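Data deposition worksheet. Section B asks for the primary sequence of the deposited chain exactly as it was used as input, without tags or linkers unless they were present during the calculation. Section C holds the resulting structure in token form. Section D is free text for depositor observations; keep each observation to a single sentence. Incomplete worksheets are returned to the depositor.
Section A, Depositor: J.P.
Section B:
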Amino acid sequence: MDEKALVAALTARGETVAAAESLTAGLVCATLARVPGASAVLRGGLVVYATELKAALAGVSPELLAEHGAVHPEVAAQLAEGARDRCGATWGLGLTGVAGPSAQDGVEPGTVHVGLAGPGTRTVRSLALAGDRDLIRTESVLAAFALLGEHLR
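Section C:
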């Protein structure tokens, strides 16, 4: 589901979305905000590029971060829950991963985890993407939109 369809679907349902973004650094929110009428559904977002901000701003468990690092499926899930809770949204998206060009904490570029939290929903999709930084970041946003879109049908 692209950003226009996502905004339309959320608007029709009277629902909202927020995001906690690491590797995409606000690209989810910026992409949604390009759509006229997005203000009816986009509550806001957290750019948590630095690992310690994932805990401080989005509520990710410091123990989880210490044990597994910032790029982990459970981190994405907790980012999604944090975005939903802190922004008062129906749905929360959480994105973490490595855009490259080099590995981070032993995690290869293109490794991405997208979390979704919402009514009766807590799920993560893990991806292995290829390409340069821009492509990995763009594909991560599209994957987040697709995941949310699946739950809006």
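Section D:
The chain has six helices and five strands.
The beta strands are 17-21, 42-47, 91-97, 111-118, 121-128.
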